[in-house]
């Protein structure tokens, strides 16, 4: 299944996120994922593993496991490169060993002190707070993103972690409309107003952290995972599926793209098996009632400032 973006290109509705994947495991994980059926991979300069992903993709192309045209590759512009969009994009392309990106996203709606293209450590001031560059507007960043489309380096461009206000502003100044807004959304953080706003205006929503972060975000941020919720466990028993499959199916039935991350082969296969059943409207309503407005991924822990405040 795929969603047709406003740019005219098709984006597979389920992908594999590569955040926090160990470098040594990436090649085998991606090759196995392709064999399972994944055709959509979500990367970012900040994940610091684009080169390893690139090696895996090159191997897949060389062995004719898959053709480039059959894959959808996303990566993202880091905060410190807002004033160096073209150089940052070319750096990602070089590491990924690709001629073009299917989708390039502004990772966060914030420009920070430039630390050099390819370096993605958060730029903190002496006070331990994110060193925000107030001379670079999101509008100028977006127009630089649009140039990438003109140059043929990127097929579609989008935004990430933008709220309704910032998304509305982007629509007002955009010559090339954002194709995607990638946001955290899952049963405990449904963000229905933002999802509906984006979809009303032709922007596809990609759900990052679609399973609520599970163990990873519990360890980093002390958050609560919806995968332990007894209601979802009950639905999993009803449909004879795993809780993760229920949650991903719910995301797909909202017409959002889901990009679960897993470093376990059995989970990769399990997460992809979500097209052989459908949740009833009644069960969709049950999940809708579970919203806690609970964000599980909070970079304020590292940045000393809550950008979502």
Automatic annotation (TrEMBL):
GO terms for molecular function: oxidoreductase activity, acting on the CH-OH group of donors, NAD or NADP as acceptor. It holds the Pfam family Aldo_ket_red. It comes from the Eukaryota. It comes from Ilex paraguariensis (yerba mate). The record marks 76 as: Lowers pKa of active site Tyr. Belongs to the aldo/keto reductase family. This is NADP-dependent oxidoreductase domain-containing protein. Keywords: NADP, Oxidoreductase. The active site is at residue 47. Substrate binds at residue 107. Residues 15-291 form the NADP-dependent oxidoreductase domain.
């Amino acid at each position: 299944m795929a969603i047709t973006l406003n740019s005219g290109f098709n984006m597979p509705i389920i992908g594999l996120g590569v955040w926090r994947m160990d470098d040594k495991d990436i090649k085998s994980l991606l090759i196995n994922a392709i064999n399972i059926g994944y055709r959509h991979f979500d990367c970012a300069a900040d994940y610091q593993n684009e080169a390893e992903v690139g090696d895996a993709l090159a191997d897949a192309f060389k062995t004719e496991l898959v053709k480039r045209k059959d894959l959808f590759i996303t990566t993202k512009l880091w905060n410190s490169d807002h004033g160096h969009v073209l150089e940052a994009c070319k750096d990602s392309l070089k590491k990924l060993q690709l001629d073009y990106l299917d989708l390039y996203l502004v990772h966060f709606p914030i420009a920070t002190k430039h630390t050099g293209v390819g370096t993605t450590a958060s730029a903190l001031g002496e006070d331990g707070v994110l060193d925000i560059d107030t001379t670079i507007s999101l509008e100028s960043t977006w127009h630089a993103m649009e140039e990438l489309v003109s140059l043929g380096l990127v097929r579609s461009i989008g935004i990430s972690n933008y709220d309704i206000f910032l998304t509305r502003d982007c629509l007002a100044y955009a010559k090339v409309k954002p194709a995607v807004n990638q946001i955290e959304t899952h049963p405990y953080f449904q963000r229905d107003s933002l999802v509906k706003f984006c979809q009303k205006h032709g922007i596809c929503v990609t759900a990052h952290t679609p399973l609520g972060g599970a163990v990873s975000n519990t360890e980093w941020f002390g958050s609560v995972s919806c995968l332990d919720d007894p209601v979802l466990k009950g639905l999993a028993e009803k449909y004879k599926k795993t809780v993760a499959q229920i949650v991903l199916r719910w995301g797909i039935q909202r017409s959002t793209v889901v990009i679960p991350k897993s470093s376990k082969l059995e989970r990769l296969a399990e997460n992809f098996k979500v097209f052989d059943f459908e949740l009833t409207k009644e069960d969709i309503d049950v999940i809708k009632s579970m919203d806690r407005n609970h964000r599980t991924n909070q970079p304020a822990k590292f940045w000393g400032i809550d950008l979502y405040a």
